[in-house]
Amino acid sequence: MRRSYDELAASYDTRWRHYIEATSALAIEAIAPEADGRALNIACGTGELERRLHELRPQLRLTGTDLSPNMLRRAAAKELGAEWLAAVAAHLPLADAAFDYVLCVNAFHYFRLPSDSLAEMRRVLRPGGTLVLVDWCDDYLSCKLCSVWLRLTDRAFYRNYSLAGCRAQLEQAGFRIDSAERRRINWLWGLMRFVCRVP
Predict the structure, then answer these.
(1) What CATH number should be reported for the domain whose range is 2-197?
(2) What is the pLDDT of residues 34-53, one digit of tens each?
């Protein structure tokens, strides 16, 4: 998967601009305008979500992790004052209870160890901290068909989840779910968004 995203890094922002804008907006609207503290974006890619957070929630102190060095280089070049770390979601080199917010946007379908990844998200969140998870939703027929195609063509892809299936995993990981919703952003992409807290 790292090789795939190293190769995509140079064209990623332009190739996926509409999708990045729509999913970033969905994640950011879950964070109050006055929110402050530390925010971690897992699988941050080229830092486009951080760029938008820097514009719209400038009081947040941002950290992004990704497994692709090329993606992280692109992110660092945007000079957002963020911290960038090479890491996989299931093994975060970060302290316990270090963050007020964790965001995971457009990445959960790649994680081969989803329960370990959710456990890490919970570990690095402080008590009362917020997780915002946005991903493709397998409740939509278009996403089901896309899943079949990606299993055949994309070695990086792991699996999509239904809203109920993702909810069950979050609850098993110890999150309290404040909201769970589905939203279609165009004819192809149907998304789900969870806003959760650490009790």
Answers:
(1) 3.40.50.150
(2) 999 999 999 999 999 999 99
